[in-house]
Input
Amino acid sequence: MRFDPPFTEARLLRRYKRFLADVEFPDGRRLTVHCPNTGSMLGCADPGMRIWLSQALNPKRKYAWTWEQVEALPGVVVGIHTGRTNALVREAVGTGLIRELAGYASLRGEVMAGEGFRVDFLLTGDGRPDCYLEVKNVTAAVQDRVALFPDAVSERASRHLRELMARVRAGDRAMLCFCIQRDDVTEVRPADRIDPVYGRTLRQAVAAGVEVTAYAARVGADATLLYRPVPVGLT
Output
């Protein structure tokens, strides 16, 4: 995924009300920008951090700038825009990076897969079982290069796992893909201390036949690309 023009660097002053952040540009200008991440942004929202922003072309937008990336650690840039997650995974499926999903003829986004549940992707065709794919954006990495999900209690994420289990029971294929928008991690794990219900539900889902995979990204102001698999730790 390429960004044209490249993102603009700034400095984070504070993040607040979930969707807002105050930033300072190198020339001293201070603005309020949109924060496209509803999680706690653990380790990714400390005042003073270097961040990168995109500017909207629509002049009617209330906030012209959107927070896209942050330098969470020296040299470690993290993509925090959850709205880009599905596009990154769609691109990775299209290039054949996600080998577990190779060979499907069709990929559709935002498909109803149960009462009130809209799955991120449905892959069909070529005589293979339909595959329901749910994608989760991962930004948090606390220690030992281990990425964690979720970074806040998320009943919605647990519900999505239960819906994937229902698809398996119905005879379909179901998969969860962790899209890790950072490149300094060697493993992703459920954040049991933050959301123990999610951790239990994820393990139940795997035991029930839901497949789980994870991929890390190279993140930059001009491009972000998923490029390598990352092990998922459940023990």
